[in-house]
Amino acid sequence: MKKGGCLCGKIVYEFLGEPIKTMLCHCINCKRMTGSSYSTNISVRSTSLRFVGSPRQFLLKSGQGPIFTVSFCGTCSSTLWKESDAEGLKGFIMVQAGTLAQGLDRYPPDGKIFARERVKWMRPMEDVEQFEGTDVRL
């Protein structure tokens, strides 16, 4: 069982089993959502996530195709996880890796989404799958 939560501790979560994939996303929406150069998403089956607290949700019409439901803490604004209506992502939750309590080193990236939008100063990762959009299948 893996555990995590938001910065202020009002929302905590756990998921059972091992993640399906860890994906880096370089799209502009993930950059804005994380305040960083990319997001690190750990995909787990929707049925394996349990949480305590009341996350707020934001419906993100990505402008790139899929719609995402973003769950975050209404107090500290930590983004916790995302769900999508994209065909290859249905039935999965993308947990934001930085919210894990421990063990993040155990989940290196399997692939990159929106790889062409990677910031130029970040070196490419040649040993992971590259996707041009959300055409990934979990």
From TrEMBL:
Molecular function GO terms recorded: carbon-sulfur lyase activity; metal ion binding
CENP-V/GFA domain ranges (all copies): 2-110
Coiled-coil regions listed in the entry: none
Keyword terms, alphabetized: Lyase, Metal-binding, Zinc
Regions crossing the membrane: none
A Pfam family recorded for this sequence: GFA
Lineage top rank: taxon: Eukaryota
Family: Belongs to the Gfa family.
Protein name (Swiss-Prot/TrEMBL): CENP-V/GFA domain-containing protein
Organism (species): Paraphaeosphaeria minitans
